[in-house]
Amino acid sequence: MARSLGQMFKGFLRLGSGLTTRTPCPPGPGSTHRASLLCTTAALQSFLFPKPRDLSLPNSSWGPDMMRLYEHYNSLCEVETEGEKQPGPWRRLPSYNRILKYATGGVYLSKIIQSKARLFTRNIKQQGAAFEYVVFVNKEEQKCVCVFQAGHLLEGPPGHVHGGAIATMIDSVAGTHATYLSGLVLTANLNINYRSPISLGSTVVLESFLDKKEDRKTFISCKVTSADGSKLHTEATALFLSITVSNIIGM
Ligand SMILES: CCCCCCCC(=O)SCCNC(=O)CCNC(=O)[C@H](O)C(C)(C)COP(=O)(O)OP(=O)(O)OC[C@H]1O[C@@H](n2cnc3c(N)ncnc32)[C@H](O)[C@@H]1OP(=O)(O)O
Predict the structure, then answer these.
(1) Do 153 and 192 have their domain in common?
(2) Is residue 201 left, alpha or beta, with left meaning phi > 0 and alpha meaning psi from -120 to 50?
């Protein structure tokens, strides 16, 4: 690991020297050597660590149900009291196509683990083709809500969403919820009852509830309903076990 870190550091220096000569940095009036050095460093940083795209924000593929529900929960993330904006009961969780890459200090760790690794639910670039979703969490109610629009690449039975894709979303939402409540966890058990099929292209709502916590165990239940809440599509229960970082790296 130390050797790989050393190699990465050398690569970083090589890239840095290349950028110093190539990055345009307009010298303003009274610019100093220090200012231009700062400018180069900033350019270098944004080149090496580009701002990740938050994939939980709306894009042009989102349909009216997806937008309506997003706007509803998003409006509950901030409340106005006496003319001042305060955090509301809900919080939107940003989402990226890699977990470790954007975690603080996780850049090197992620490269060491696997540079080509991408989060399963976020690895199809074409907007609207697969998993379009946003997760909100309510700390007080210990509840999570996910608004999910299922794209055409998730087909199982003709015109309907694949059961594995539904399971993926349940595992992701319940897993995100368990992580939010208990830190690093792995799914130990997931039980799913499929009650009614989900049409491809439709928007559904996943609600995740904390059932109980016992030592390392976090028990979550989850249901999937239609956008207006009138139809139950899927129900699930899950057990997550708390683990340590070494559990993952030593896997
Ligand atoms: C943003 C993205 C979020 C994504 C979330 C997605 C989450 C995932 O998909 S994780 C990937 C799928 N899961 C896995 O690969 C996990 C594979 N399994 C494992 O690594 C291990 O079995 C693991 C870590 C779950 C448990 O192992 P370990 O830490 O040794 O626990 P172990 O000692 O066997 O059991 C601890 C307790 O849990 C119970 N337990 C363990 N597994 C189960 C199970 N499947 N069902 C019921 N109880 C269980 C045991 O009975 C024991 O109970 P008690 O303490 O009362 O005796």
Answers:
(1) yes
(2) left
User: Is residue 121 a part of any domain in this protein?
Assistant: yes
How far, in Å, CA of 223 to CA of 206, rounded? 6
CA 121 to ligand 1: nearest atom: 2
Catalytic center residues: 171
Query: What is the pTM (predicted TM-score) of this model?
Result: 0.82
Q: How far is the CA of 241 from the centre of ligand 1 (A)?
A: 5
Q: Is 128's C-beta closer than 6 angstroms to any atom of ligand 1?
A: no
Task: Report the nearest-CA residue for atom 40 of ligand 1.
Answer: 188
pLDDT tens string 178-206: 999 999 999 999 999 999 999 999 999 99
Q: Please tell me if the CB atom of residue 39 comes closer than 6 angstroms to any atom of ligand 1.
A: no
- Alpha carbons within 13 angstroms on the beta-carbon side of residue 46 total 6
Q: Which amino acid is residue 207, in one-letter code?
A: E
